[in-house]
Amino acid sequence: MPLPQASPARRTQRLRSTLLLAGAVVGSGCLTLGLVAPASAVVVTPVAAPVAAPAVPAAPAAVAADTPTPEQLAEAQRRAERSAAQAAQAQVDLQAAQAQLDALAAQANAALETYQQAMEAKAAAEQEEIAQHARLVQAEAVLAEGKKDLGQWASEAYRGGGTLQEYSGLVTVLQGGPTDDTASTLASVKRIGDGRSNAVDAYEEAQRVQADATQRAAAAAAEARTQADIATAAKQQSDALVAQQRTQVGALAALQAAAAGTATSDAERAANLAAAKAQADAAAAAAAAAAAAAAAAGTSGGAPGYRDYGAAGSCTGASLSGYANGLLPRSALCPLWGAPNHILRSDAANAFQALSQAYAAEFGAPISITDSYRTLAEQIDVKQRKPGLAAKPGTSRHGLGIAVDLGGGIQNATSAQHLWMDRNAALYGWINPAWAQNRGGQFEPWHWEFTG
Question: Does the keyword section mention Ligase (predicted)?
Answer without folding.
Answer: no
